[in-house]
Inverse folding.
């Protein structure tokens, strides 16, 4: 009896610890929605999901054709890492995809960001670039993918062009709205201290636009990756999307799932990387 | 000693949309600020105070009339006129030291000199212990003090302040009034200071102008010396409750309200 009670109590304690409103520490505000650390809860969720997956597959409730066991997916990851699958190894496919996405991303950074800033500070720039960008921006990249295939084939050049186009618009428009986030007082302040126009653009506008430029870069690399994987599933000779699609054609479900994890893992790494860069370059972001 | 002169200055804003009417924000403004005037502009909202300051700062060109600083026409903003903004306009990515020396950096001054000059003025506003703080780590009053120190670094002939204390609470505001007066006395600069607060205006001004809206005009002008009493006694509270202070406040309130009634009647 007392054992049951104490169990009840401790589990209750545990619940109130996980879900209850804890005491407010200095620097936190009482009543702010969603405040507090959620890492522990997230770990519990992940472990539960993986356990469920492991359990239902090992009990044989679902056929491996539809959902293979976690162990076999992990095994595939190790074996395909160095063995050929669909024309290349896992590392080879990943390298092909990463090369495409980074090349396009780099090209977009050196062109879209200056264009966006130019659109923000210069009437002529805005007049020239607004119509083409506004025209193609709402079109999903897969909509103009067939055209890029007709023009450029299915090799790297076509993939890079497609991703470049897909991420150019969001990156340019973010840079442009970043320029607008600079206040008129900040600009007047610089002029009243004797700044030249070039100095205002460099020391005030560009710096002030930095948080949104970086947001644009984060959106860009994420969207570029999504687009690339889809494009590789439409037509490609290598790449992580191509690997998943060829696995699906031969019903090799464990490679399909392993591929999905790799795609997700890389996307997650991009996000971590961009967050890291943001913390380094714009530590003041959102603080004023 | 510098002189800032406005002769028959008119500013007319174009109508905001087609068919609207234009706004005569300033009509035939004649004004001379010289020596070490502490000139305060007072008036109802929309009577053209900010417009007047923007003309002096060079942010807008008047439609007609001359604006002269030491007999040279003002063609645009420049480091000979320091501006303190209502919302401080600090750069969030720079710490207090770098915000303060921002103008010196633009003028390509050497690093040691920048540090020396900025530290001097930060000392003057009492922020020498906050050099490496970022703006978001400062209180509202401290931010305004950084803005003031920054405007002083380029050693301007005149300080232009647009409601610099407007966003502060009552107590901080009183402290800042005294600080601004002390800095004015120490640096011997001309000041043009905009406020909504009648008490603040009377307390701080060596010259006070009262403006009326549509068209924006100067309707009254006073020479005051309550600040002088403050420098002698350093007791702002009792100065603000002196009979002559209260009388003055009454007179100015009558002007401003009388003006409103006149407008209401068309
Ligand atoms: N950029 C502008 N374009 C058109 N009209 C303007 C512009 N700026 C100000 N005005 C008009 O000019 C008049 C004077 O404006 P101003 O900002 O100088 O007033 P103010 O005395 O500073 O008011 P407040 O005390 O509220 O700051 C107002 O009627 C305003 O509507
Ligand atoms: Mg104003």
């Amino acid at each position: 009896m007392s054992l049951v009670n104490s169990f009840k109590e401790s589990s209750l304690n545990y619940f109130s610890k996980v879900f209850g409103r804890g005491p407010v520490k200095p620097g936190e505000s009482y009543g702010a929605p969603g405040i507090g650390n959620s890492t522990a809860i997230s770990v519990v969720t992940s472990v539960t999901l993986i356990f469920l997956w492991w359990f239902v597959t090992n009990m044989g409730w679902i056929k491996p054709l539809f959902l293979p066991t976690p162990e076999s997916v992990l095994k595939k990851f190790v074996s395909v890492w160095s063995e050929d699958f669909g024309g290349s190894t896992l590392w080879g496919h990943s390298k092909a995809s990463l090369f495409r996405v980074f090349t396009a991303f780099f090209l977009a950074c050196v062109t879209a960001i200056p264009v966006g800033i130019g659109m923000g500070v210069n009437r002529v720039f805005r007049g020239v670039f607004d119509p083409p960008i506004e025209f193609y921006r709402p079109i999903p990249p897969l909509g103009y993918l067939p055209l890029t295939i007709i023009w450029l084939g299915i090799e790297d050049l076509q993939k890079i062009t497609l991703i470049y186009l897909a991420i150019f618009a969001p990156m340019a428009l973010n840079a442009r709205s970043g320029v607008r986030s600079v206040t008129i007082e900040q600009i007047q302040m610089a002029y009243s201290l004797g700044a030249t126009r070039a100095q205002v653009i460099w020391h005030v506008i560009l710096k002030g636009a930095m948080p949104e430029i970086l947001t644009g870069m984060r959106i860009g690399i994420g969207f570029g990756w999504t687009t690339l994987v889809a494009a590789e599933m439409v037509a490609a000779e290598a790449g992580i999307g191509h690997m998943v699609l060829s696995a699906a054609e031969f019903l090799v479900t464990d490679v399909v799932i392993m591929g999905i994890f790799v795609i997700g893992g890389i996307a997650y790494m991009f996000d971590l990387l961009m967050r890291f860069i943001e913390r380094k370059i714009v530590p003041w972001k959102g603080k004023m | 000693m510098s002189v800032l002169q406005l002769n028959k200055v008119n500013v007319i804003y174009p109508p905001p949309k087609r068919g609207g009417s234009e706004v005569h924000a300033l009509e035939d403004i004649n004004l001379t600020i010289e020596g070490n005037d502490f000139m305060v502009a007072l008036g109802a909202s929309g009577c053209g105070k900010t417009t007047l300051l923007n003309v002096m700062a060079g942010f807008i060109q008047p439609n007609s009339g001359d604006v002269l600083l030491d007999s040279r026409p003002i063609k645009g903003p420049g480091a000979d006129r320091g501006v303190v903004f209502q919302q401080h306009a600090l750069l969030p990515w720079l710490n207090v030291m770098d915000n303060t020396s921002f103008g010196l950096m633009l003028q390509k001054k050497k690093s040691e000199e920048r540090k020396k000059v900025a530290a001097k003025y930060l000392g003057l506003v009492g922020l020498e212990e906050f050099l490496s703080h970022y703006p978001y780590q400062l209180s509202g009053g401290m931010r305004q003090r950084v803005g003031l120190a920054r405007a002083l670094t380029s050693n301007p002939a005149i300080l232009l302040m647009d409601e610099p204390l407007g966003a502060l609470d009552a107590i901080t505001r009183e402290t800042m009034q005294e600080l601004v007066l002390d800095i004015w006395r120490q640096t011997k600069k001309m000041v043009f200071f905009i406020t909504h607060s009648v008490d603040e205006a009377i307390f701080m001004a060596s010259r006070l102008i009262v403006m009326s809206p549509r068209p924006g005009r100067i309707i009254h002008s006073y020479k005051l010396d309550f600040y002088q009493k403050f420098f002698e006694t350093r007791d702002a509270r009792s100065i603000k409750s002196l009979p002559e202070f209260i009388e003055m406040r009454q007179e100015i309130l009558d002007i401003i309200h009388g003006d409103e009634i006149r407008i209401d009647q068309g």
In short: The domain at 3-80+158-167+181-265 of chain B is CATH 3.40.50.300 (Rossmann fold). The two ends of chain B are 44 Å apart (CA to CA). The CA atoms of residues 230 and 236 of chain B lie 6 Å apart. Residues B 13, 23, 25, 43, 45-51 surround adenosine-5'-triphosphate (ligand 1) (CB under 6 Å).
